[in-house]
Amino acid sequence: MKNLEELKKSIYEEIQLYKTLDELFEEKRKVIISNKAEDLLKVDEKILNVVDSIKSAVNHRQTLSKILADKNLSISEMIELAKTSAPTLVGEFEAAQNQIIELSNEIARKERIIKELLRHGMNLVNKTLNLISNAVSMAGDYNRTGKNVQSDIDRISSIVEEV
Fold first, then answer.
1. Residue 12: how many other CB atoms lie within 10 Å
2. Which DSSP symbol is given to 91?
3. Do the Cβ atoms of 85 and 4 come closer than 8 Å?
4. 158 sits in which H/E element
5. Which of 98, 73, 97 is nearest to 85 (CA)?
6. Where are the domains of the chain?
7. Quick one: which of 126, 130, 153, 127 has its CA closest to 140?
8. Using the 8-state DSSP alphabet, how is residue 95 labeled?
9. Do 106 and 84 meet the contact criterion of CB atoms below 8 Å apart?
10. Residue 72 in 3-state DSSP?
C-alpha cells in the first residue's frame, strides 16, 4: 500500500510537469505569432528544463515501479495491482490515467500547431529572400562611376542616372 501511494504521488508529480509543459507550448505558440525571437529562446530553454524534470520524474517512477513489481508498470497495470492490494487508490490511478491521456493529446496538438507556424514562417522568410534577391539581380551591376552596366534595365533603380 505504501509503495502504491508513493507511485501515485510520483505520477501526480509527472502530471504537474506535463501541465507546465502544456502551458509552455501555449506560450511558445504566442511568442511565435508575436515574432519575438529573443522570447522564443527563453521559452525553449524553459521547455528543455521541464523536459529534463520529466525525465527525472519518469526515472523515479520506474524505480518505484521496479521495487513494487520488479518491472516497469504501465498505469493500467498499476490500476490492476491497486484493485487487489489497495482498492481505494483505483479511482485515483484511473483519474491520473485520463489526465495523462488528455495532456498528451493536447501537447501533441500544440506541438503540431507550433511546427506549422514555424513552417509558415520559414516560407515567408524564403519568399522575402527571393523577392530581395530578384530585385537585386534586376537592378543590375554598377561600374565605378555609378553607371548601370546593364543598360536594358536602367530604369529599375532610382539611383541609375547617366552621368
1. 15
2. H
3. yes
4. none
5. 73
6. 2-137
7. 153
8. H
9. no
10. coil
How far, in Å, CA of 31 to CA of 65, rounded? 39
Asked whether the CA dihedral 84, 86, 88, 92 is positive or negative, the reply is negative
pLDDT (tens digit per residue) in 58-71: 999 999 998 888 88
Would you state the torsion angle of the CA atoms of residues 54, 60, 64, 67, taken in this order, to the nearest 10 degrees?
140
How far from 1 is each of 16, 38, 43, 113, CA to CA, in Å? 23, 48, 40, 42
pLDDT for residue 161: 46
Q: Assess contact for 96 and 52: CB atoms under 8 A.
A: no
Q: Quick one: how far is CA 128 from the chain centroid?
A: 25
More confident residue, 87 or 134: 87
**Residue 137: predicted pLDDT:** 60
Q: How far apart are CA 146 and CA 19, in angstroms?
A: 61
CA 111 to chain centre: 5
Render pLDDT for 32-55 as a digit per residue (tens, 0 to 9).
999 888 899 999 999 999 999 999
CATH domain 2-137 topology: Methane Monooxygenase Hydroxylase; Chain G, domain 1 (1.20.58)
Cell output for 72? 516497469
Alpha-carbon 51 to chain mean position: 10
